[in-house]
Amino acid sequence: MQSVRFGIVILADQRWEQAARRWRLAEEYGFDHAWTYDHLGWRNLVDGPWFDAVPTLTAAATVTSRIGLGTFVASPNFRHPVSFARQLTALDDISGGRLLLGLGSGAGGTSFDAHVLGVPPLSPRQRIDRFAEFTELLDLLLREDHVTWRGEYYTAVDARNLPGCVQQPRIPFVVAANRKRSMGVAARFGEGWVTTGDNAGGAEAWWQSVADAARLMDEALAAAGRAQDQVRRYVSLDASGTFALTSAAYFEDAVGRAAELGFTDVVTHWPRPSGWYAGDESVLEEVAARIAMD
To answer: What is the pLDDT of residue 128?
Structure first.
């Protein structure tokens, strides 16, 4: 395997008595970070079972001791920065400073998260504007006490943050971005950046889109006055349209290609019996054995 860090997404689609096993094993297998989706429902799994990310990560923190834990990714679709900051501060405390906060703009009015709340659809520009404000306010709330804010999308009046985050000056942000404007948010606020690329044209076209996104991120960091090595680079391998854990060889090849493009972290998903990310856990075990050898 290449010199990269490995992450795995564990969907919150099992009762905890079954799910706890996967989180424990993620740590035992040697993964550097483990994530779960932050949605009220997701695609055709919306009819359940489905569980909230915050208590899931809280429970995961109690059955692990080393692995990073995070949202992949939280969005403004149903989170408010003031209440969310309180939840994140508690999670960072319970996990002993292992929380990673994946953030994204959300899918506007097209996602179940927005639809179930009856929120009117936002234009792409409005969605990024809201995301930029969400991220900036959340950054402030996690760093400072007594925050007052009146923006276009959010208001905070003398919001408190004590005792603050275990990780200082705040929890690391891993910002999802595939286009120029959202990359500006990632370059300004992110300790990490994650891309899913564009899978509209097949595997090779996807890798090209990932390479293009990496170049755009270079430009965004330069514009923000930040060095390239200040921001870790994550890629969601399964976004290519082919599940990265199809075989251990396929996974190893994908990791190598990501490393060549300058990515520091790769993320795959825990195999499920059917549907999304359907696969065999024996492949995961084989990959884990190779990770452990590095």
So the answer is: 96
